[in-house]
Amino acid sequence: MATAEGLSKTTQINGMRYYDVGLDQLFPSVTTILGKMTDQSGLDHWRNKIGKDKANKITKFSANRGTIMHQMIEYFLLSNKKNKSDRLKESQLKILEFVKVEGYTEEELNIGRKLFYNFYNANSFDQISKIVEIEKTLHSTRGGGYAGRVDTIYEKNDGRLIISDYKSSRKPKQLNWIENYFIQTSAYFIAYWEMTGIKPADCEIWISNEQNDTPQIFHMGLPAIKVYSAKFLNMVKGFHNKYKH
User: Fold this and answer.
1) pLDDT at 2
2) CA 76 – CA 91 distance, rounded (Å)
3) Cα 139 versus chain centre, distance
4) CB of 216 within 8 A of CB of 174?
5) Where are the beta strands (DSSP E) in the chain?
């Protein structure tokens, strides 16, 4: 998860997250830009339909079990144990301590672990040859500037460099539901390329859901990345024009 150092570089302005990236300027986060510059009417309708209190309860639970899933993935991927089963055992012990310290509920723990195990049991992690970055803060000056933390940048078994983002869900996702996920990972692609001069080969969105044991991994090659990154950079420009501080 995000380190204390990484979190210390963020601030809230009018309810929106900004990053201090050391350029004498605060850059809005990728998720803030997406939240402000895309249609949120569906989410608003859902909240109004079920009521604010229930919506907040569901949102909090979803965020917490997603945090547990992310943290367990991080423990597993960063483990120094060479044996896969030993890495799993270490991750199991660490997540129990994490949940205890953070005060998450047993139900949140059970669902969060289930979401992790969906990836583990499907051997999804086996395609990862080398971890390059985890929870890395990235930024770009394009369009007025933006920043965000990418879940993982890894080297695949075939040597290709991949930008990946992990998502949790109540049910499997259809392709036309996740455009913002594609836009988000494209934003990280552009920022990493700008910061390092290294052009990744692909973006991936890993989604684990509560309803079944089958994770989804959506791939996005360079032609699609070009389309979605252009959409995002237009949003960045629009955001800076609309929200000046």
Assistant:
1) 44
2) 5
3) 15
4) no
5) 10-13, 16-20, 26-28, 128-140, 146-156, 161-169, 202-209, 216-220
